[in-house]
# Entry
Amino acid sequence: MMKAQRSFVSAEHRTSDYLAAVKALRDLDSGLRTRAYAEAVCQDHLDSWAKSRHLKPSSSYPCRRLLFGKRCGRGSRAGCQDHELPASDHLSVWQINGHHVIVSQPYGIRDSWLNELASLKVRGVHIEIDAWPAWHFPGSVLHLAFWSAPAWDAYMDRITKLQDGSP
Ligand SMILES: [Zn+2]
# Structure
């Protein structure tokens, strides 16, 4: 049998609080364990990600046309079925300097979505695919961020200026 038991922090962080939290999670039913962890971290994941990417929530509804600076007019707050992104689930829309980023947090990536993801990339959309922050259900969903080209440029510009120390 393969062994999965690991320590995820070094000895100085294995405090009594840390060990008690691990024990409390282990003592839960396995179906509840993941949910308890998710409930404890989801807001922090969302806030940390938005802060690290210099993004604010957008009032626009999710539509792939946003990524190309185009208007739609066919969708609603729930989204736009005419211009749906691949791997769309648990969507949210963000902005930096008025340029859009659409976040999707699906449970997985289907083979049939890969070509569509590649074609968005060819058209200038920057796509991040990560396990973190996945705030919809940390530990169970993926996080895909679709950045319009000007949004990604604005983000790169922001972090370059911060690294240079300019305001
Ligand atoms: Zn649309």
Q: What stands out?
A: Strands lie at 56-57, 92-96, 99-104, 126-130, 143-147. The mean pLDDT is 94.
